[in-house]
Amino acid sequence: MRTALALLLIASPAFAQQAADTVAPEGVTGFVPDAPAPVVATDWMVAAANPLASEAGARVLREGGTAADAMVAVQAVLGLVEPQSSGLGGGAFLVWYDAATGELTTLDGRETAPATATPTMFQVDGEPMGFFDAVVGGLSVGTPGTPMLMEEAHRRWGRANWGGLFDEAITLAADGFTVSPRLATLVANDAERLSVAPATAAYFLPGGTPIAEGDTLLNAAYADTLRGLAAEGTDAFYTGEVAEGIVATIRSAALPGRMSLDDLADYRVIERPAICAPYRGAEVCGMGPPSSGALTVGQILALIEPYDIAALGPDSPEAWRLIGDASRLAFADRGRYMADSDFVPMPKLLDPAYLSDRAALLSGDDALPEVAPGSPPWDHAALDLADDVSLELPSTSHISIVDSYGNALSMTTTIENGFGSRLLAPGGFLLNNELTDFSFRTHTDGVPIANRIEPRKRPRSSMSPTIVMQDGVPSLVIGSPGGSRIIGYVAKTIIAHMDWGMDVQQAIALPHLVNRFGTYDLEEGTAAEGFAEALTALGYETNVRGLTSGLHAIAIDGDTLSGGADPRREGVAIGN
Ligand code: GLY
Fold this sequence. Notes:
Bound molecules: glycine
Oligomer: single chain
Radius of gyration: 22 Å
Number of helices: 19
Strand content: 15-25%
Helix content: 25-40%
Largest sheet: 8 strands, mixed
């Protein structure tokens, strides 16, 4: 029995489109880019954010390891070579397709608020702190989940020897790795905040100078932490010297945090049912609360399904009006209702009749003048909730893997902001700032906010690790970093692949147009900028800006695996 919650939409008649809508706006040429061909293989594939990490995963897969084994190796290397995005000090969500059983499982390794957290801990004199005032220091650090998620995935689905999965990362940490252009740039850009904590400054800004592209960087402390994990499992992380180092770092920071040794010792990975939304005959499956990912991606796709997006094509402002307003409607529900469902009841956000009514709102010609949360069916309809105002800035990393046994893994992994809390633990890894994904306000006009902070609650996420299932087997494994824009990046790439027939690399490379709350973000330096006039005429405010997704995807068609890595970052797909 599949654990996925398959939620079927009532078929609704397609709303008519006008032929003129399919015409590209003046000035938009070459919107569909000439991307390189995807990496094609038949046995296994790994796509991750850094070549050294993908190589580590490829070695495991080549030697007969599973996707879970390979993920452990990939994550261990990412924590070293892409430390700003993910690592042992962070959290992750994993979606697993098991070829032997046909089941989908999701694991929640999200960071957790300490037992002593309070709803007002990010307020001063009753007002929310400035975002970065809260991020930098110990207060923002949630109890990490990534190490236990790695262990749990290996325990359930691994075949390789656990200890050996850390070999590559230990060697790179002990002997040194070459600093990539992206890491060097991000360190230079963040030098002021990185200089706040002495250990962090000593590592990233030795002698006061930012590490540079091409430097060889060693991390002996990280090598020691990995040796401990390899030999003893995660007890070596959640108890003992490493745990004591985490707590001491948090408690002695300029803005001290509240995590205790008990918080670390009590941490647990939680298995949750996958959330699946039907789309064009497939099921788009991913991570449910505390992530808003699968519900919001699922709502966007459900709201556009009655419209003929394929016929409109990627050049059409009308297609982007439908996608943009579907996204606005979905984000309105996200802001009102989505949070850790172990703490707050949630309505039926993928209810077919509800989504059909919401989809009908898109049948006009112009941008919706106003967008508000809907009233999905709910046993707690009397419970009043106010909209969340939490801010999520882009960072994070995504890993997609298919192994030679046919298993598929989609995992999005994070320390939240770039370089997280900016605190480097004595174990050689950065600590997350995930608690700032909670709402800093607890109420609006006396009405509670679902994503408010509570002890041992998990902050709402946008991470959207996804596996698209077609006829009961995976057809696309995908995910991205990017804060709350992750949802738009993943939805766009699924639409480009499924509706517009793009191969996975082209779908990833297609310029981004992302709408969360009304303003239409158009990807700077791409043909997406050419949509500004047409979208303004439809009633949107547009905003040209960098949109640095980090999509990694594997399309599966019979025995053929096609891997794509985002040209906006440094990742690669490797297959055999
Ligand atoms: N902190 C990024 C996310 O969880 O969506």
